[in-house]
Amino acid sequence: MKHHIWSKPDLHWEGFEPVPYWFHMEKSFALKLTRKSEGQNADQHTTVGDVYALLRDKPLSPESLEGGVLEDRFVTLDDSLTLKIEGPLFNRDVLRTTLTLHSEGINPFSAIWYYFDHDTCRQDPQECYSFFVVANDKITRERVAFFNDLYSGFDPTIFDTHDYKDMTWGDEADWHEADTRYWYRKFYTETRTGQLMALRPDEPQLFFYEETGPDVMGAIGVLNQSLVTIRLLLWALVIVSVINLVVHWR
Question: What are the backbone angles phi and psi of residue 224, rounded to the nearest 5°?
């Protein structure tokens, strides 16, 4: 399914697929930002990579990222560093995500992103792409959303995925697809967000959901049909028995 990109039209991008993605480190680090320091009028042009290197070992709290340094407010991160970061929403979201994962002991560039939902704003030309995140062999985020509008700077090329052109073994792609199906199955069956996706009345596309387990409604239908067949057989046996009794008594 193709999704329109408001900020950076790319005729070669056809939307996200149900495959594992990673943040491409070089492309992520190259995203542009502006750094402002308290008491200084001059803005400093910088990048996600430079700010990540500056802040990754600072004592970051969720509040300092969500409502502070990345939200147009000066925050003092230690005795010598008071700053705020400005720039396109997408670039700040990438920085926020990488810093948050790093603060939890997760390498943000080995975490795996699985796309599962897309939505379009009804009031503004804006789109939303939702992922769940797997790291350290577990689902660490049920939903992380990235937004795409005229000014967000949305750039899907930072999401990298497997390239099987030079694979070593013949079944390598099949093992990777099996692993992908495993995580989607786990998402839809074991997380609240995944279960809600399966229950939504608008019936969004569910990736590999038909393979997550037995079809309960289908099983019920088969069972009912089997019961009907059994009843017919029993009636047939009763009729045959009655006929045999009548013949025997004659």
Answer: -60, -45
| Average pLDDT per 10 consecutive residues for the chain, totaling 250 residues | 39 82 96 81 86 83 57 58 83 92 93 96 89 97 93 93 76 90 96 96 91 46 61 73 65
d(C-alpha 134, C-alpha 106), whole Å = 10
DSSP state of 21: B
pLDDT on residue 43: 79
Q: Which residues pair with 132 in a beta bridge?
A: 114
Cβ–Cβ under 8 Å, residues 89 and 97? no
Q: If you search the block for the tokens 């720039």, which residue do you land on?
A: 87
Q: Which residues neighbour 208 within 8 Å (Cβ) at sequence distance 6 or greater?
A: 18, 180, 181, 184, 185
Tokens at residue 118, please? Answer: 């897309």
Q: Which residues contact 212 (CB under 8 A, 6 or more apart)?
A: 184, 185, 188, 189
Start-to-end CA span in the chain (Å): 75
* Distance in angstroms (rounded) separating the CA atoms of residues 88 and 155: 11
61, two tokens:
């709290």
